[in-house]
Design a protein that fits this description.
The chain is of the alpha/beta class. 38% of the residues lie in helices and 18% in strands.
Length: 331
């Protein structure tokens, strides 16, 4: 019989693409998905997904569905500790070491603190290094709780780097961050960056294509359910990172695409003024994101068979621009 998988974040960019990946394997998985909008229900049901109405604040609901499932993939609000605790409670109530919990973290959220050495690269095979990551960001707090409280179930953390490309989900198909570069650049008629551009030429971030990331989740799920992963770590940790880029290079590439279409007057990149940051970037001033490196290598991910094969962040950029222009009715 197929494994029962409960998914949070199915309407999102990452969770939606993970859902589409799971639906490729109807003989392996049946999927239920937490949703808040009832208008999504019919669409999910058309694809064979059981909609579960509720939110991450519905602890009893999360616990009940976790207990009734073989595996839970949490791809919604990664900082919502209470939701994680409710899910883990349900999985533990199964009293089955094989109950699977896969949590989505963030390399930006856990290895970006500005006091880290600029050249430090974290390796997901080196858990001593991973657990030494400074604990001053919310993502890290949730990860630490999982490390400390999930030893009696089969738990894994997947930490994507900058995710790019057009997703395969049923609803949200693009990153919440990249459209800001396009829209702000077009409005001010010049490509830009958040934060002081002078500090960023040598800042390096990892990136991963959304389709490669969905593949990684499916591989981690399959290996976890089959209990074939050989590891001394009680909670396994996987970076989702395939290539590296700098934000200066990214902004320059955006500028060239927009300039070729007559949507900006210059390809020269400058710092976005505060009004554009407030308008187009979620959370307002995210200059801290570009203040330090976010470098990692996904050796553990590759060891279990993950082999990224889709285009890098520059190879999907024009596709993302086209998507935003189409949605904005700009030609």
């Amino acid at each position: 019989m197929p494994f029962k998988v409960f998914l949070t974040g199915a309407s999102g960019y990452i969770g939606g693409s993970v859902l589409s990946e799971l639906l490729k394997f109807p003989d392996k998985y049946t999927v239920s998905a937490l949703i808040r909008k009832r208008e999504y229900a019919d669409i999910l049901q058309e694809h064979g997904v059981t909609p579960v109405f509720g939110s991450l604040d519905d602890a009893e609901l999360l616990t009940r569905w976790a207990k009734e499932s073989d595996a839970v993939i949490h791809a919604a609000d990664y900082e919502h500790l209470c939701a994680v605790q409710a899910i883990v409670k349900g999985l533990k109530e199964k009293e089955d070491k094989g109950a699977v919990f896969i949590h989505t973290s963030s390399t930006t959220g856990i290895i970006l603190p500005v006091d880290q050495p600029a050249s430090q690269t974290y390796d997901d095979m080196n858990m001593e290094s991973v657990k030494s990551i400074p604990r001053n960001l919310p993502y890290r707090l949730v990860d630490d709780w999982i490390f400390e409280n999930c030893k009696d179930i089969t738990a894994a953390i997947v930490a994507p780097s900058v995710v790019h490309g057009i997703g395969s989900g049923l609803f949200n198909k693009i990153s919440i961050y990249h459209p800001g570069f396009f829209k702000a650049g077009m409005e001010r008629r010049r490509p830009g960056l958040v934060g002081n551009i002078a500090n960023q030429p040598n800042v390096v971030f990892g990136n991963v294509n959304i389709h490669d990331l969905a593949d990684l989740f499916q591989i981690v799920l399959e290996e976890s359910l089959s209990n074939t992963i050989e590891s001394e770590d009680e909670v396994r940790f996987y970076f989702g990172s395939a290539k590296d880029h700098s934000w200066v290079e990214f902004a320059q590439a955006v500028g060239k695409i927009l300039h070729n279409r007559g949507l900006v007057d210059t390809i020269e990149v400058s710092q976005f003024e505060p009004e554009y940051v407030d308008k187009y970037f979620p959370g307002g001033d995210l200059s801290f994101i570009w203040a330090g490196d976010s470098r990692c290598v996904a050796n553990r991910s590759r060891k279990i068979g993950w082999a990224p094969k889709y285009p890098d962040i520059f190879g999907t950029l024009e596709q993302e621009v086209n998507y935003v222009l189409e949605k904005s009715k700009i030609k």
